[in-house]
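Hi Prof. W.,

I finally got the AraC family transcriptional regulator prediction working! I wasn't sure whether to trim anything, so I left the full sequence exactly as given:
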Amino acid sequence: MHRIAVVVVPPATTFDLSIPELVFGATSVDGAPGYEVRICAARPGAVATGGSLAITVPHGLEAVDGADTVIVTGTSAREDIDPRVLTALRRAAADGRRIASICTGAFVLARAGLLDGRRATTYWAKSAEFSRRFPSVELHPDVLYVQDGNLFSSAGLSAGIDLCLHLVRLDYGAATANAVARLVVAAPVRPGGQAQFIETPVPAETGTSLAGTRSWALERLHEPLDRAGLAAHARISVRTLTRRFHAETGLSPLQWLLHQRVIRAQELLETTGLPMDRVAHFSGLATTDSLRRHLSRHTGLTPSAYRAAFTRRLA
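And this is what came out:
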């Protein structure tokens, strides 16, 4: 079982703290839990939060030493971070453990020196402060999450769910990650490069949302869909489609289609024994060369290596 230590740095952001328990606790592989999650702090017990809720943390930082993944959740702390937390994070990094932050937890990773010269992100409203404090970090303030080697960081609040689902996908594959997304009623795994905030995250109740067209497209990924076809289904112009698509998803129609097709290919590789040309066909990537190119770009693995890796993990 993959072990995760969630490090709480007071004053803690309670929403961020709930995300790892929610996502990883819902992960099941062949009926068995996929993760063991331990919430820890430099001082176990009652921990201050940024609001009126009171929380109790059961474990000390010894949980970090036994973890495969260490996640620091959001905090209002800047200068007064317990040095024991920074030491534990540096030790975990030196041991090659996977380390992640949610929201302003990136300030803690940066304070530990783990992000120097590395790519990272944080909550967009705190990006100016972050860049001022840590100019040596290559901050990407307009994306959902960033992966730089074994270091991961996410934007604020719900982007933490996207990051945790991404980690599930890395550990157990796209099919499991999307099953978890359905269980926690979250969006399917979204690409990290998607914008943190979009023009109309909650469309007005005027019937102008393209959700119906996206659902229609997901049922036809194996067909040669293009912007004209999507626009025809939505009964709008291609120009209007492109504008609304970006407003609702942060992606262009073709970017969204490609992302969904790669995810479909991953699921087929994980859950079926279909030959590669049929995986390419049913995912809408058309040819085995196209399947290999796009899957390698997104995962770093060839289709055969991806199937072998996740078949072995799930066996």
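The radius of gyration is 20 Å. Does that look reasonable to you?

Thanks,
D.
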